Amino acid sequence: MILTLLSFLGTTLLQLVLLNRYFFALLGSSQQSRQRIIVHYLLSGTTIYLSSVSFFPVLITGLLSISSAFIISWCYSSRIESKAIFSVLYVILGFIAETLSYGFITQVHLTPSDIDLGSKQTRLLILLFSSLIFFLFIMLIKLFKRQRDYKLNKWYYLVLGLINIVSLLILNTLFFHTQENNMYIFSAFGILLINITIIYLFDQLIESFQMKDELQQLHKQTDYQNASYQKISNSFQMTKRIIHDTNKHFVYIRACIQTGEQEKALEHISKTLQVMGNSYLSIATGNLVIDALLNNAINISKEKNIQIKYQVSIDNLDMIDSYDLCIVIGNILDNAIEAAQLLLTPEERFISIRIFTHNHMLTIHIVNSYAHQNKKKLKENSEFHGVGLLNVRQITEKYGGHITTTAGETFETIVVLPICKQVTLA
Protein backbone atom coordinates (compact mmCIF):
# COMPACT_ATOMS: atom_id res chain seq x y z
CA MET A 1 0.00 0.00 0.00
CA ILE A 2 2.73 2.44 1.02
CA LEU A 3 4.82 1.42 -1.99
CA THR A 4 1.88 2.13 -4.32
CA LEU A 5 1.31 5.57 -2.79
CA LEU A 6 5.01 6.36 -3.14
CA SER A 7 4.81 5.24 -6.76
CA PHE A 8 1.93 7.69 -7.30
CA LEU A 9 4.09 10.37 -5.70
CA GLY A 10 6.78 9.57 -8.24
CA THR A 11 4.31 9.82 -11.14
CA THR A 12 3.10 13.14 -9.73
CA LEU A 13 6.63 14.49 -9.91
CA LEU A 14 6.86 13.12 -13.43
CA GLN A 15 3.62 14.92 -14.35
CA LEU A 16 5.05 18.18 -12.98
CA VAL A 17 8.13 17.70 -15.13
CA LEU A 18 5.84 17.13 -18.13
CA LEU A 19 3.92 20.31 -17.35
CA ASN A 20 7.17 22.25 -17.08
CA ARG A 21 8.46 20.96 -20.43
CA TYR A 22 5.04 21.40 -22.07
CA PHE A 23 4.61 25.07 -21.16
CA PHE A 24 8.28 25.77 -21.85
CA ALA A 25 7.80 24.39 -25.38
CA LEU A 26 4.75 26.63 -25.85
CA LEU A 27 5.59 29.83 -23.93
CA GLY A 28 9.32 29.83 -23.21
CA SER A 29 11.03 30.43 -19.86
CA SER A 30 9.12 31.40 -16.73
CA GLN A 31 9.35 35.06 -15.70
CA GLN A 32 8.11 34.62 -12.11
CA SER A 33 10.12 34.61 -8.89
CA ARG A 34 11.41 31.31 -7.54
CA GLN A 35 9.15 31.48 -4.47
CA ARG A 36 6.04 31.99 -6.59
CA ILE A 37 7.02 29.15 -8.92
CA ILE A 38 7.45 26.80 -5.94
CA VAL A 39 3.99 27.70 -4.61
CA HIS A 40 2.39 27.06 -8.02
CA TYR A 41 4.11 23.69 -8.39
CA LEU A 42 3.11 22.63 -4.86
CA LEU A 43 -0.55 23.47 -5.54
CA SER A 44 -0.49 21.75 -8.91
CA GLY A 45 1.34 18.71 -7.52
CA THR A 46 -1.22 18.33 -4.74
CA THR A 47 -4.04 18.47 -7.28
CA ILE A 48 -2.37 15.86 -9.51
CA TYR A 49 -1.65 13.52 -6.59
CA LEU A 50 -5.27 13.64 -5.35
CA SER A 51 -6.49 12.99 -8.88
CA SER A 52 -4.14 10.01 -9.25
CA VAL A 53 -4.80 8.17 -5.96
CA SER A 54 -8.55 8.86 -5.91
CA PHE A 55 -11.09 7.49 -8.34
CA PHE A 56 -13.29 10.46 -9.01
CA PRO A 57 -15.83 10.55 -11.84
CA VAL A 58 -14.36 11.34 -15.26
CA LEU A 59 -15.69 14.90 -15.25
CA ILE A 60 -14.10 15.75 -11.89
CA THR A 61 -10.82 14.09 -12.87
CA GLY A 62 -10.74 16.13 -16.08
CA LEU A 63 -11.44 19.37 -14.23
CA LEU A 64 -8.67 18.59 -11.72
CA SER A 65 -6.23 17.93 -14.58
CA ILE A 66 -7.17 21.22 -16.27
CA SER A 67 -6.79 23.03 -12.94
CA SER A 68 -3.32 21.59 -12.33
CA ALA A 69 -2.18 22.71 -15.77
CA PHE A 70 -3.80 26.13 -15.40
CA ILE A 71 -2.02 26.66 -12.07
CA ILE A 72 1.37 25.96 -13.70
CA SER A 73 0.53 28.22 -16.66
CA TRP A 74 0.53 31.26 -14.34
CA CYS A 75 4.29 30.87 -13.98
CA TYR A 76 4.61 32.06 -17.58
CA SER A 77 4.03 35.41 -19.26
CA SER A 78 1.04 34.89 -21.51
CA ARG A 79 -2.54 36.01 -22.00
CA ILE A 80 -5.15 34.30 -19.84
CA GLU A 81 -6.97 33.10 -22.98
CA SER A 82 -3.83 31.32 -24.20
CA LYS A 83 -3.25 29.83 -20.74
CA ALA A 84 -6.78 28.40 -20.71
CA ILE A 85 -6.49 27.02 -24.27
CA PHE A 86 -3.13 25.39 -23.59
CA SER A 87 -4.31 23.97 -20.24
CA VAL A 88 -7.27 22.23 -21.87
CA LEU A 89 -5.02 21.10 -24.71
CA TYR A 90 -2.66 19.57 -22.13
CA VAL A 91 -5.51 17.44 -20.81
CA ILE A 92 -6.48 16.42 -24.36
CA LEU A 93 -2.93 15.33 -25.16
CA GLY A 94 -2.75 13.56 -21.80
CA PHE A 95 -6.00 11.74 -22.53
CA ILE A 96 -4.68 10.68 -25.94
CA ALA A 97 -1.43 9.49 -24.33
CA GLU A 98 -3.38 7.44 -21.77
CA THR A 99 -5.58 5.97 -24.49
CA LEU A 100 -2.55 4.96 -26.55
CA SER A 101 -0.77 3.55 -23.48
CA TYR A 102 -3.88 1.53 -22.63
CA GLY A 103 -3.91 0.12 -26.14
CA PHE A 104 -0.19 -0.68 -25.93
CA ILE A 105 -0.62 -2.47 -22.58
CA THR A 106 -3.49 -4.61 -23.89
CA GLN A 107 -1.67 -5.50 -27.11
CA VAL A 108 1.60 -6.63 -25.48
CA HIS A 109 -0.23 -8.25 -22.53
CA LEU A 110 1.68 -6.43 -19.80
CA THR A 111 -1.30 -7.08 -17.54
CA PRO A 112 -3.92 -9.82 -17.51
CA SER A 113 -6.30 -9.72 -20.47
CA ASP A 114 -9.15 -8.63 -18.24
CA ILE A 115 -7.78 -5.20 -17.31
CA ASP A 116 -9.23 -3.65 -14.19
CA LEU A 117 -9.02 0.14 -14.56
CA GLY A 118 -9.93 0.41 -10.89
CA SER A 119 -6.70 -1.30 -9.94
CA LYS A 120 -4.04 1.10 -8.66
CA GLN A 121 -1.29 -1.03 -10.19
CA THR A 122 -2.95 -0.83 -13.62
CA ARG A 123 -3.52 2.89 -13.21
CA LEU A 124 0.14 3.39 -12.25
CA LEU A 125 1.32 1.44 -15.31
CA ILE A 126 -0.88 3.50 -17.63
CA LEU A 127 0.43 6.73 -16.08
CA LEU A 128 4.05 5.70 -16.64
CA PHE A 129 3.53 4.74 -20.28
CA SER A 130 1.37 7.79 -21.00
CA SER A 131 4.10 10.04 -19.56
CA LEU A 132 6.64 8.60 -21.99
CA ILE A 133 4.20 9.13 -24.88
CA PHE A 134 3.54 12.68 -23.72
CA PHE A 135 7.28 13.42 -23.88
CA LEU A 136 7.11 12.47 -27.55
CA PHE A 137 4.20 14.90 -28.02
CA ILE A 138 6.27 17.69 -26.45
CA MET A 139 9.20 16.96 -28.74
CA LEU A 140 6.79 17.15 -31.69
CA ILE A 141 5.43 20.52 -30.51
CA LYS A 142 8.94 21.94 -30.13
CA LEU A 143 9.61 21.26 -33.81
CA PHE A 144 7.35 24.13 -34.93
CA LYS A 145 6.15 26.15 -31.92
CA ARG A 146 8.02 29.45 -31.57
CA GLN A 147 7.27 30.30 -27.92
CA ARG A 148 5.34 33.50 -28.56
CA ASP A 149 2.01 34.95 -27.56
CA TYR A 150 -0.14 37.66 -29.05
CA LYS A 151 -3.57 39.11 -28.53
CA LEU A 152 -6.13 37.69 -30.95
CA ASN A 153 -9.80 38.43 -31.44
CA LYS A 154 -11.95 36.71 -28.80
CA TRP A 155 -13.76 34.71 -31.49
CA TYR A 156 -10.54 32.88 -32.35
CA TYR A 157 -10.15 31.81 -28.72
CA LEU A 158 -13.83 30.76 -28.63
CA VAL A 159 -13.44 28.55 -31.71
CA LEU A 160 -10.26 26.98 -30.32
CA GLY A 161 -12.00 26.37 -27.00
CA LEU A 162 -14.97 24.66 -28.70
CA ILE A 163 -12.61 22.40 -30.68
CA ASN A 164 -10.89 21.44 -27.42
CA ILE A 165 -14.18 20.64 -25.71
CA VAL A 166 -15.40 18.53 -28.64
CA SER A 167 -12.06 16.68 -28.67
CA LEU A 168 -12.45 15.85 -24.97
CA LEU A 169 -16.00 14.56 -25.48
CA ILE A 170 -14.94 12.36 -28.40
CA LEU A 171 -11.96 10.98 -26.47
CA ASN A 172 -14.14 10.27 -23.46
CA THR A 173 -16.56 8.33 -25.65
CA LEU A 174 -13.78 6.43 -27.39
CA PHE A 175 -12.09 5.42 -24.14
CA PHE A 176 -15.20 3.68 -22.81
CA HIS A 177 -15.60 1.67 -26.02
CA THR A 178 -12.00 0.49 -26.26
CA GLN A 179 -12.81 -3.11 -25.44
CA GLU A 180 -15.50 -3.27 -28.14
CA ASN A 181 -13.33 -2.05 -31.03
CA ASN A 182 -9.55 -1.82 -31.33
CA MET A 183 -9.90 0.77 -34.10
CA TYR A 184 -10.18 3.42 -31.38
CA ILE A 185 -6.38 3.79 -31.50
CA PHE A 186 -6.58 5.18 -35.03
CA SER A 187 -9.31 7.58 -33.89
CA ALA A 188 -7.05 8.73 -31.06
CA PHE A 189 -4.24 9.33 -33.57
CA GLY A 190 -6.68 11.33 -35.70
CA ILE A 191 -7.63 13.58 -32.77
CA LEU A 192 -3.93 13.94 -31.92
CA LEU A 193 -3.26 15.09 -35.48
CA ILE A 194 -6.14 17.58 -35.28
CA ASN A 195 -4.91 19.12 -32.05
CA ILE A 196 -1.26 19.26 -33.13
CA THR A 197 -2.48 20.98 -36.30
CA ILE A 198 -4.43 23.43 -34.13
CA ILE A 199 -1.23 24.35 -32.26
CA TYR A 200 0.52 24.90 -35.59
CA LEU A 201 -2.34 27.00 -37.01
CA PHE A 202 -2.56 28.97 -33.75
CA ASP A 203 1.15 29.77 -34.05
CA GLN A 204 0.72 30.78 -37.69
CA LEU A 205 -2.25 32.96 -36.76
CA ILE A 206 -0.18 34.73 -34.13
CA GLU A 207 2.60 35.28 -36.68
CA SER A 208 0.07 36.71 -39.15
CA PHE A 209 -1.30 39.20 -36.62
CA GLN A 210 2.21 40.16 -35.53
CA MET A 211 3.26 40.81 -39.11
CA LYS A 212 0.11 42.86 -39.68
CA ASP A 213 0.83 45.01 -36.64
CA GLU A 214 4.50 45.38 -37.59
CA LEU A 215 3.40 46.49 -41.06
CA GLN A 216 1.16 49.11 -39.48
CA GLN A 217 4.07 50.27 -37.36
CA LEU A 218 6.27 50.49 -40.45
CA HIS A 219 3.62 52.55 -42.24
CA LYS A 220 3.38 54.83 -39.23
CA GLN A 221 7.17 55.21 -39.07
CA THR A 222 7.22 55.98 -42.81
CA ASP A 223 4.49 58.60 -42.38
CA TYR A 224 6.38 60.22 -39.51
CA GLN A 225 9.62 60.26 -41.48
CA ASN A 226 7.92 61.62 -44.60
CA ALA A 227 6.40 64.37 -42.49
CA SER A 228 9.83 65.09 -41.03
CA TYR A 229 11.42 65.21 -44.50
CA GLN A 230 8.69 67.57 -45.67
CA LYS A 231 9.20 69.86 -42.68
CA ILE A 232 12.96 69.89 -43.24
CA SER A 233 12.41 70.72 -46.90
CA ASN A 234 9.97 73.49 -46.02
CA SER A 235 12.43 74.79 -43.42
CA PHE A 236 15.21 75.04 -45.98
CA GLN A 237 12.93 76.71 -48.52
CA MET A 238 11.70 79.26 -45.99
CA THR A 239 15.23 79.98 -44.77
CA LYS A 240 16.34 80.43 -48.36
CA ARG A 241 13.56 82.94 -48.97
CA ILE A 242 14.43 84.86 -45.81
CA ILE A 243 18.10 85.05 -46.81
CA HIS A 244 17.09 86.16 -50.29
CA ASP A 245 14.97 89.00 -48.83
CA THR A 246 17.51 90.04 -46.17
CA ASN A 247 18.62 93.16 -48.04
CA LYS A 248 15.03 94.33 -48.40
CA HIS A 249 14.41 93.89 -44.68
CA PHE A 250 17.56 95.83 -43.78
CA VAL A 251 16.65 98.64 -46.18
CA TYR A 252 13.19 98.94 -44.62
CA ILE A 253 14.55 98.83 -41.06
CA ARG A 254 17.18 101.51 -41.90
CA ALA A 255 14.46 103.73 -43.37
CA CYS A 256 12.36 103.36 -40.22
CA ILE A 257 15.31 104.31 -38.01
CA GLN A 258 16.23 107.30 -40.21
CA THR A 259 12.67 108.66 -40.00
CA GLY A 260 12.52 108.08 -36.25
CA GLU A 261 9.94 105.29 -36.43
CA GLN A 262 11.71 102.96 -34.05
CA GLU A 263 8.51 101.10 -33.08
CA LYS A 264 7.89 100.04 -36.68
CA ALA A 265 11.52 98.93 -36.95
CA LEU A 266 11.24 96.83 -33.76
CA GLU A 267 7.94 95.37 -34.88
CA HIS A 268 9.42 94.36 -38.23
CA ILE A 269 12.49 92.86 -36.56
CA SER A 270 10.29 90.82 -34.19
CA LYS A 271 8.15 89.56 -37.08
CA THR A 272 11.24 88.57 -39.07
CA LEU A 273 12.74 86.72 -36.11
CA GLN A 274 9.43 84.88 -35.55
CA VAL A 275 9.31 83.76 -39.18
CA MET A 276 12.91 82.57 -38.94
CA GLY A 277 12.15 80.70 -35.73
CA ASN A 278 9.14 78.97 -37.30
CA SER A 279 11.27 77.86 -40.22
CA TYR A 280 13.29 75.49 -38.03
CA LEU A 281 12.18 72.16 -36.56
CA SER A 282 11.54 72.20 -32.82
CA ILE A 283 13.84 69.21 -32.32
CA ALA A 284 16.84 68.38 -34.50
CA THR A 285 19.06 65.83 -32.76
CA GLY A 286 20.32 64.18 -35.91
CA ASN A 287 18.48 60.94 -35.09
CA LEU A 288 15.73 60.77 -37.71
CA VAL A 289 13.39 58.55 -35.66
CA ILE A 290 13.50 60.76 -32.57
CA ASP A 291 13.28 63.97 -34.61
CA ALA A 292 10.33 62.73 -36.67
CA LEU A 293 8.33 61.28 -33.75
CA LEU A 294 8.91 64.13 -31.31
CA ASN A 295 8.24 66.89 -33.85
CA ASN A 296 5.08 65.10 -34.88
CA ALA A 297 4.02 64.79 -31.21
CA ILE A 298 4.74 68.49 -30.66
CA ASN A 299 2.59 69.47 -33.65
CA ILE A 300 -0.30 67.22 -32.57
CA SER A 301 -0.08 68.56 -29.00
CA LYS A 302 -0.34 72.12 -30.26
CA GLU A 303 -3.42 71.20 -32.30
CA LYS A 304 -5.07 69.58 -29.27
CA ASN A 305 -4.07 72.36 -26.83
CA ILE A 306 -1.76 70.10 -24.83
CA GLN A 307 1.14 71.77 -23.04
CA ILE A 308 4.30 69.92 -23.93
CA LYS A 309 7.79 70.19 -22.47
CA TYR A 310 10.76 68.30 -23.79
CA GLN A 311 14.40 67.79 -23.03
CA VAL A 312 16.51 65.69 -25.38
CA SER A 313 20.20 64.95 -24.99
CA ILE A 314 21.41 61.84 -26.81
CA ASP A 315 24.60 60.32 -28.11
CA ASN A 316 24.94 57.89 -31.01
CA LEU A 317 22.11 55.33 -31.03
CA ASP A 318 23.31 53.17 -33.91
CA MET A 319 23.22 50.06 -31.68
CA ILE A 320 19.42 50.37 -31.44
CA ASP A 321 17.52 49.46 -34.59
CA SER A 322 15.47 52.40 -35.92
CA TYR A 323 12.40 50.19 -36.29
CA ASP A 324 12.59 49.11 -32.63
CA LEU A 325 13.17 52.71 -31.50
CA CYS A 326 10.14 53.80 -33.51
CA ILE A 327 7.94 51.17 -31.82
CA VAL A 328 9.04 52.17 -28.32
CA ILE A 329 8.87 55.97 -28.62
CA GLY A 330 5.93 56.00 -31.05
CA ASN A 331 3.64 53.87 -28.87
CA ILE A 332 4.47 55.72 -25.65
CA LEU A 333 3.89 59.12 -27.26
CA ASP A 334 0.62 57.99 -28.87
CA ASN A 335 -0.71 56.74 -25.52
CA ALA A 336 0.41 59.92 -23.74
CA ILE A 337 -1.33 62.19 -26.28
CA GLU A 338 -4.56 60.19 -26.19
CA ALA A 339 -4.66 60.19 -22.39
CA ALA A 340 -3.85 63.90 -22.07
CA GLN A 341 -6.39 65.08 -24.67
CA LEU A 342 -9.27 63.50 -22.70
CA LEU A 343 -8.96 66.04 -19.88
CA LEU A 344 -11.63 68.72 -20.02
CA THR A 345 -9.61 71.94 -19.89
CA PRO A 346 -6.40 72.81 -21.78
CA GLU A 347 -4.79 73.91 -18.51
CA GLU A 348 -4.94 70.32 -17.24
CA ARG A 349 -3.40 68.77 -20.34
CA PHE A 350 0.35 68.35 -20.36
CA ILE A 351 3.11 66.01 -21.49
CA SER A 352 6.67 66.07 -20.21
CA ILE A 353 9.32 64.30 -22.30
CA ARG A 354 12.90 63.53 -21.29
CA ILE A 355 15.10 61.44 -23.56
CA PHE A 356 18.77 61.17 -22.70
CA THR A 357 21.76 58.85 -22.78
CA HIS A 358 23.99 58.20 -19.78
CA ASN A 359 26.48 55.43 -19.03
CA HIS A 360 25.66 53.64 -22.30
CA MET A 361 21.96 53.59 -21.46
CA LEU A 362 19.10 55.28 -23.31
CA THR A 363 16.40 56.52 -20.94
CA ILE A 364 12.95 57.55 -22.16
CA HIS A 365 10.94 59.25 -19.41
CA ILE A 366 7.47 60.50 -20.28
CA VAL A 367 4.90 61.92 -17.85
CA ASN A 368 1.42 62.95 -18.99
CA SER A 369 -1.76 64.16 -17.36
CA TYR A 370 -4.23 61.39 -16.72
CA ALA A 371 -7.75 61.20 -15.30
CA HIS A 372 -9.19 58.01 -13.79
CA GLN A 373 -12.72 58.91 -14.88
CA ASN A 374 -11.62 58.70 -18.51
CA LYS A 375 -10.61 55.04 -18.31
CA LYS A 376 -13.77 53.98 -20.16
CA LYS A 377 -12.92 56.19 -23.13
CA LEU A 378 -9.40 54.82 -23.21
CA LYS A 379 -10.74 51.27 -23.16
CA GLU A 380 -12.47 51.85 -26.49
CA ASN A 381 -9.03 51.33 -28.07
CA SER A 382 -7.75 49.01 -25.35
CA GLU A 383 -6.89 46.28 -27.85
CA PHE A 384 -4.65 48.64 -29.81
CA HIS A 385 -3.00 50.02 -26.67
CA GLY A 386 -2.55 46.50 -25.28
CA VAL A 387 -0.77 45.44 -28.43
CA GLY A 388 1.33 48.62 -28.39
CA LEU A 389 2.44 48.11 -24.79
CA LEU A 390 3.17 44.44 -25.47
CA ASN A 391 5.36 45.47 -28.41
CA VAL A 392 7.23 47.96 -26.22
CA ARG A 393 7.84 45.27 -23.57
CA GLN A 394 9.09 42.83 -26.20
CA ILE A 395 11.55 45.41 -27.54
CA THR A 396 12.85 46.25 -24.06
CA GLU A 397 13.34 42.55 -23.30
CA LYS A 398 15.08 42.09 -26.64
CA TYR A 399 17.73 44.66 -25.64
CA GLY A 400 17.92 43.52 -22.02
CA GLY A 401 16.26 46.72 -20.77
CA HIS A 402 13.12 47.31 -18.72
CA ILE A 403 9.92 49.35 -18.71
CA THR A 404 8.09 50.80 -15.71
CA THR A 405 4.62 52.37 -15.76
CA THR A 406 2.97 54.18 -12.84
CA ALA A 407 -0.61 55.48 -12.88
CA GLY A 408 -1.75 58.04 -10.32
CA GLU A 409 -2.56 61.71 -10.64
CA THR A 410 -0.29 61.49 -13.67
CA PHE A 411 0.79 58.61 -15.85
CA GLU A 412 4.52 57.97 -15.89
CA THR A 413 6.42 55.70 -18.28
CA ILE A 414 10.13 54.95 -17.99
CA VAL A 415 11.97 52.84 -20.53
CA VAL A 416 15.67 52.05 -20.18
CA LEU A 417 17.56 50.45 -23.08
CA PRO A 418 21.24 49.47 -23.11
CA ILE A 419 22.95 50.88 -26.20
CA CYS A 420 26.10 48.78 -26.10
CA LYS A 421 24.77 45.32 -25.22
CA GLN A 422 24.50 42.43 -27.64
CA VAL A 423 20.88 42.12 -28.78
CA THR A 424 19.10 38.81 -28.19
CA LEU A 425 17.47 37.85 -31.46
CA ALA A 426 13.86 36.71 -31.25
Automatic annotation (TrEMBL):
Supply the name of the protein.
Sensor histidine kinase
User: Is Transferase set as a keyword in this record?
Assistant: yes
Source organism of this protein record: Paenibacillus illinoisensis
Q: Where is the Sensor histidine kinase NatK-like C-terminal domain?
A: 323-410
Q: What is its EC number?
A: 2.7.13.3
Q: Where are the transmembrane segments?
A: 48-72, 84-105, 125-144, 156-177, 183-202
Q: Matching PANTHER family, A to Z? A: TWO-COMPONENT SENSOR HISTIDINE KINASE (PTHR40448)
A single GO molecular-function term is: protein histidine kinase activity
For this UniProt record, give its keywords in alphabetical order, as a comma-separated list. Answer: Kinase, Membrane, Transferase, Transmembrane, Transmembrane helix
Pfam families with a match to the protein in the record: HATPase_c_5
What lineage is on file? Bacteria, Bacillati, Bacillota, Bacilli, Bacillales
Check the record and name the InterPro entries matching this protein: HATPase_C_sf, NatK-like_C
